[in-house]
Specification:
The structure is a homodimer. By secondary structure, the first copy, chain A, is an alpha/beta fold.
Chain lengths: 645, 645
């Protein structure tokens, strides 16, 4: 039997499964899935070098299904080849055909969209929110190159999806980085969800765009097995990365599924019958013509070395760097301290990789760039791509630290949420956080981050961890200590650093936990709880209040989620009065403290966040005063608060 | 004096101002600004048809400075032409040269980046977070076309900025929509912040990309006044929109500013001296050669008609639509109700415009598309562009309703925050919100929206309003009533709608306020506070609890911010027990209620949000149970809560 005939048989067989899967589920996207029947068959039964019995093999080629809703066809193929699923190698089991009919069920490993964290390790990242997969594939490709591994990263993208700007950020990145080990395939089936795609998304326009981006387009019939095989193996001319534009039929094989507006619609019982009639299996069944090749080579030993840094000797760390002066003066910005920490971490472990969005001389990720240029990834001004590339690097075994202004991370909150769903081991450091940024104004200030990351901090992942840990260090010492804990911890972490220099509060030997708080000073009248820059402002306020006979304690609540015993740890019992002040909009620290307190119902909390949106101000003080959270405002609030006692 | 000589004189003069402005401010981006000296001069002194004395003239050409940090050059030109600033026409005043030296001061109207909401009405939208301006210009252009106005929308973009995917979403959109009245200029100065731009961003590559996108690139010397003037006036061949690639010198005119890494650095006193030496004004001063032409035509009367809908007659509204069956059964999804409301609003006011991201047959914005295709904007799968286009439409006097899944709005949170800073009159409706979405799984579920939008709800804009109002209607009636209030209200509003059908709770005559709550039933033991889908789940729980002798009241807390008298309004006095349950991650409703309660310190609040990240489930019930917020879980929590009393 010819290759083409064998593939064709399989494509029909898998399409039959897909139709039945979605009908049984009562939902799903059979039309997007069958469009990929031939491509999936060639990839999973011929081209990809992988081991269905061991989806954790780090040498395997990988597939990123950016067009996540088409996943039923991948599930069908994977079950057919006897692919293994499970949360980890100890809990692996073979997927069976019977599993397919559990698609989208609450107890099923076959989720509506790809997600390795739900027990489907064939994939590396949760997809389904469109436009993110090419970046993930690029990150996996970078990791492979860093490790000298011969891996090909395949990525299937929809043509409807090609309108997402991130796709083009990723293609720019692939061109910049010469990632010839990424092979992108556009599922060019002419339809989006509600309508045909526009001329901007036609196969011809896609090819023109790809050429303009400096990549090599190959346009094929997406249902021609030989053409698919050839395109997947094409050696790029002039070393350009190849992008395949596969002309496909949405709803291939089933007339009903081919109508516009049939996106995301399963067939009813009658429609399924008709579909199975149309998808008639040929008489001759393929005999072992199709078999996925195993990856070659010895599986390298995983680097599981714990990461730790010695107690920070700031003077020594800063020697010879641009931060020596600041350290001398004893006033160091946490972003400067992070730069020092990142370099130290980079020296401690080869897994540490830094990414930056063209601001490495502001975030100070440049420290790693200068010493380990091969582990620094310049992502330019394209934050969405940066985050998903980082997710790919994490899936490839790296510990990526993504860096940019806290405000610019907002550009990638969708990608970050998907990374949280993936349980990606991704670290983010948002510099210039809060309103202390001053003169640049609100378009550069990170003020919504506490709420967003706080919401992730309050939910558990499938692995039982917080969706994200949020760290807001107040000084250089805690920054370095928390950065080390952040690197060694497995999971998503976001750290806010500051633009301005601040005093050093902690001794180098002060022990820190990833999740915790520090009581800087006790106080019988009230406790002021703050983080980051506001710890210093709160200190000023506490001193002024002391002068007026009011004893305010000071707590550095540097992390979310709060520790389970937070209130006890800070000595807040019945009747306690807590004033929380943060330099970001509400939903973060104050919300968490109020929630904990309100459960008790006998602790009072007054919360201070910027009252109004900030604007430019020449000094941090100007802006703090403008938005009503400067030391003076804290004192006034404290007195009001106590007056009402 | 020739045109070129006059422009050159002005370019030097403005560059002198820019250097001094940034030096006095102690911060700023003089190098990006002087690169635009000639372009700015030709635009603001010759090409743009506008009235410096009346920046609110709706007939004027507009400039969107996407490369927001270059704003000092615009400020300098605007002051030089005697441009008017102010919060509104009643408070307008002429900008003077002396104002320039107040750049970035807390009391200055000259913010670090453009923002009309801070009193600089020459601009239409806050920019500074890069990559958003082309979309805004496209939205302004669409509004102009809808109104039959002959306006040209200019947009200046950086080459570093060209890596942002949104730029390419916008260019696809401009091509799709044939927006020939948009003229984009790339400030191609070869440098980003930390480094030279990559080959992907060179002038030649930009031209290739633009051609591939179906637009017409014109490459010029960005310091040649005649070439600039010509390119700005070029008539597009074959009706293609024109994109100008202007090769410029970053830090034009000042040697020190031309170094790599000098991005965002002001000159010190000595550097300023040297700069002014280099930027020597020619001997001959231009005499009235340059004067901005006024816009022609009679200023149309602004449509300030209040928008209101009659009490909704669901049966009548649904007649002849696909929702008639649901209404008949008395179980209507809020997304269906919104579809009906949108159509009614579209009939009530010509200002109503709907945008959608290729899911109008799921969000049901298709109702407007079918009846008023000229007021429906298909944005395809590109949410970032959709939001900023909507911001442009709002600036152009429209009332835009942007529609997509709640989860897909996360893609545009940066753009939404900028719209909040702008105080844009932008409405967003996120369908399929919360975990009740069921089978698609978390990549399609809006669960972080409450925290993000809640954080905006808790801060005041420069105009004194909430940064955003969040609406979460629980039934069809409240959806329609709140949609009408949303349309009539001036400011940012976000509504969450649901996929599944729910019961109808309110009478058509029930009065609603934009910010408020409804006590559905009183209860002496505790009050269950919920919104949206969870009101129905809470109702089930309350009924079960009643059967066990526990009287739980029920509150539909449908908006954020909470009303100032929320606790009083729901009858929560000292000793009250409140159980809050929401189908989104924390930081939203529960946080707001806990914050209000904790201020008192004598009200207990227990908050329920999804305990774990959701996954696919065939029914909404499956998923609610999986994440621990179903009626059974609510009952258990209520009993625990009371047990601890």
């Amino acid at each position: 039997m010819t290759f083409a005939a064998a593939v064709h048989y399989k494509a029909i067989e898998l399409s039959r499964h897909v139709c039945r899967m979605c009908t049984e589920a009562g939902s799903g996207h059979p039309s997007s899935a069958t469009a990929l029947a031939h491509i999936t068959t060639v990839l999973l039964y011929h081209t990809m070098r992988y081991d269905p019995a061991n989806p954790w093999n780090p040498l395997s080629d990988r597939l990123v299904l950016s067009e996540g809703h088409a996943v039923p066809i991948i599930y069908a193929a994977y079950a057919d080849v006897g692919g293994v699923v499970g949360a980890d190698p100890k809990h692996g089991r073979k997927l069976s055909l019977d599993d397919l009919w559990t698609l989208r069920d609450i107890a099923s490993v076959l989720d509506g969209h790809p997600n390795p964290a739900l027990g489907f390790p064939f994939f590396d990242a949760a997809t389904g929110s469109l436009g993110q997969g090419v970046s993930v594939a690029a990150g996996l490709a970078l990791a492979a190159r860093m490790d000298g591994l011969d891996k090909t990263l395949y990525c299937i993208v929809g043509d409807g999806e090609s309108r997402e700007g991130q796709i083009w950020e990723a293609l720019d990145f692939i061109a910049d980085q010469h990632l010839t080990n990424v092979r992108v395939l556009f599922n060019s089936n002419k339809m989006g969800q509600s309508d045909y795609v526009s001329p901007q998304q036609s196969a011809a326009t896609l090819a023109r765009k790809i050429r303009a981006y400096g990549l090599h387009p190959i346009t094929i019939n997406g249902h021609d097995p030989v053409a698919i095989r050839k395109a997947l193996a094409a050696r790029p001319p002039k070393g350009k990365p190849v992008v395949i534009i596969a002309k496909t039929q949405k709803g291939w094989g089933v007339k009903e599924l081919q109508q516009v507006g049939y996106h995301g619609k399963p067939l009813d019982a009658k429609g399924l019958q008709a579909a199975l009639e149309q998808l008639k299996l040929p008489a001759r069944k393929p005999q072992d013509v199709l078999c996925p090749p195993l990856p070659r080579g010895e599986i390298p030993k995983a680097d599981r070395q714990a990461i730790a840094l010695a107690d920070p000797d700031l003077v020594k760390m800063a020697e010879g760097t641009k931060f020596a002066g600041a350290v001398q003066k004893g006033k160091v910005a946490t972003r400067q301290a992070f730069g020092l920490a990142l370099l130290a971490l980079g020296r401690a472990s080869k897994r540490i990789v830094a990414l930056d969005g063209d601001v490495s001389n502001s975030t100070f990720s440049e420290t790693l760039r200068k010493e380990f240029p091969d582990r620094f990834v310049e992502c330019r001004i394209a934050e969405q791509n940066m985050i998903s590339v980082a997710a790919g690097l994490a899936a490839g075994g790296k510990i990526p630290f993504a860096n940019t202004f806290a405000k610019f991370f907002v550009r990638a909150y969708d990608q970050i949420e998907m990374a949280a769903n993936t349980c990606a081991n991704l670290k983010m450091v948002g510099s210039h956080s809060g309103v202390s940024l001053g003169a640049d104004g609100p378009s550069q200030m990170g003020v919504v981050d506490a709420a967003f990351f706080g919401s992730l901090a309050g939910v558990r992942t499938p692995k039982g961890r917080p969706g994200c840990v949020v760290l807001v260090p107040s000084d250089a010492i805690s920054t370095i200590k928390l950065a080390a804990l952040m690197a060694d911890y497995e999971g998503l972490v976001y750290m806010r650093t500051l633009r301005p220099e601040t005093a050093i509060l902690y001794q180098p030997s002060e022990p820190f936990r990833l999740i915790g708080q520090k009581v800087l000073s006790p106080g019988k009248d009230l406790a002021i709880i703050a983080w980051g820059y506001m710890v210093h402002e709160a200190r000023k306020a506490a001193e002024r209040l002391k002068g007026e006979g009011i004893e305010a304690g000071l707590v550095d609540a540097y992390s979310l989620p709060l520790a389970a015993d937070f209130l006890e740890a800070i000595g807040a019992g019945p009747g306690a009065k807590l004033l929380v002040v943060e330099d970001n909009y509400g939903g973060g620290l104050g919300s968490a403290v109020a929630a904990a307190a309100a459960q008790r119902g006998n602790i009072r909390v007054t919360s201070m966040t910027p009252r109004t949106m900030p604007k430019s101000g020449k000094t941090a003080d100007d802006v703090l005063r403008f938005v009503g959270i400067d030391a003076g405002a804290i004192c006034r609030r404290a007195k009001e608060f106590l007056g009402k006692a």
